[in-house]
Amino acid sequence: MIGLKVPKKETNHIRLSLQEKSLLNHDWRIKRSEDYVYLPLNQRPDDKFLKELGLIRADIVDTDFEEHKKRPRSMEDYLNGRIPPEKMDEFKKSFDIIGDVVILEIPDELEDEKYLIGEAALKFTKRKSVYRKKSKIKGIVRTRELEHLAGEDQPVTIHKEYDSHITLDVKKVYFSPRLATERKIVTDQVHDGEIIIDMFAGVGPFSINIARRRKVQIYAVDINPHAVNYLEKNITSNKLKGQIKPTQGDVAEVLKNLNLEVDRIIMNLPGTAYEFLPIAIKHIKPGGTLHYYQFSRDFEDPIKRVKQAAQPRHVKILDKRKVKSRSPGVWHVAIDAKIT
Ligand code: SAM
Q1: Which of 59, 124, 158, 248 shows a CA-CA span of 20 to 30 A to 339?
Q2: For residue 339, what are the β-bridge partners?
Q3: Does residue 59 contact residue 6 with C-beta atoms inside 8 Å?
Q4: What pLDDT, on a 0 to 100 scale, did the predictor assign at position 299?
């Protein structure tokens, strides 16, 4: 590569002049000998410019420079150059962090680079364990297969969300950190003294966030025994103002045996919550609020389902939100409805 050989004492003003003309190549280190300094160049300067600097053509030399080791600033930066450039577009920069666990999505095209990507995630997120999504979220308990890529194979972690500490096993239960804002929106609507049913409670992020802030009574139900075990743990490890009663089982069965009329019901099972609308309506007080979730392309369909299930009761839609994207054009939507 080409460089300019300049007498040591002249270096400063020549370096500045080269910089001014964008001729100095910053990717390479300046090299020094006893009497000379070698400045790496982007391109050959013309004779007129060399003359102005008091140099001649012979001062342009072909020599080796050492590359600057730039500290990568992001995972993408770090992987650039380590994975083939044509595959770089496949690399998805988004990932979930749950406590000390990172969960990545790596397409099949990057199978050979998965451990490298896992190590990069470990290095840049400074978490303890990295897993790759191996399936979609599936089944009644809404979990997915995970493949361990880097760090410890430790799926049990404590996730912090608005001062709530949620302990969970990422392999055995459903949990999405992307619902944090939604949980805050719901929590902000709750008043002291309310009775609430969290129909699909999981490890309890809605229930815990609410009971930490309000003197309420929450019936938290989940069909997954692992989720209920962590929910019980989370009830004891958080300082709660309210009370949470955890129950394991199919919520349709559990509610049959509970003679309850409540102020608020949370229905966060967006794939099939509509099947449980009639039973939710049955347990909601006149004037009570329903937080209904559904995967949908629009708001009309979930609103229609709530209204149909509530008949002949009156439904007032209080709010509707796109919580997060599920697939192109399909959203996890939230409907807040007052049932009178
Ligand atoms: N609300 C929690 C959260 O925000 O993390 C968990 C939501 S997750 C999408 C749905 C939960 O519903 C899962 O934990 C699953 O085990 C539970 N579930 C599914 N069918 C159920 C049923 N029939 N009765 C009770 N729980 C059920």
Answers
A1: 248
A2: 288, 315
A3: yes
A4: 98
Please count the CA atoms within 13 angstroms of the CA of 77 that sit on its side-chain side.
Answer: 8
Q: What is the pLDDT of residues 226-242, one digit of tens each?
A: 999 999 999 999 999 99
Q: Report d(CA 264, CA 192) in Å as an integer.
A: 12
What is the mean pLDDT of the segment spanning 152-175? 97
Does ligand 1 have an atom closer than 6 angstroms to the CB of 273?
no
Query: Is the CB of residue 179 below 6 angstroms from any atom belonging to ligand 1?
Result: yes
In 164-314, which ranges are E strands?
164-169, 195-198, 217-222, 243-248, 262-267, 284-296
Ligand 1 centroid–CA 199 distance in Å is: 7
Which residue spans within 54-125 are E strands per DSSP? 60-62, 95-98, 101-104
Protein residue with its CA nearest to atom 1 in ligand 1: 201
Does residue 140's CB lie within 6 angstroms of at least one atom of ligand 1? yes
Go through the domains of the chain in sequence order and give each one's CATH number. Answer: 2-62 (3.30.70.2580), 75-154 (3.30.300.110), 176-339 (3.40.50.150)
Ligand 1 pocket member 161 (CB < 6 A): no
pLDDT in tens, 297-339: 999 999 999 999 999 999 999 999 999 999 999 999 999 999 9
pLDDT of 94 higher than 90: no
pLDDT of residue 26: 77
Q: What are phi and psi of 183, to 5 degrees?
A: -65, -35
Query: Would you say the CB of residue 223 lies under 6 angstroms from ligand 1?
Result: yes
| DSSP element (H, E) containing 78 | helix 75-79
* Length of the chain as a residue count: 340
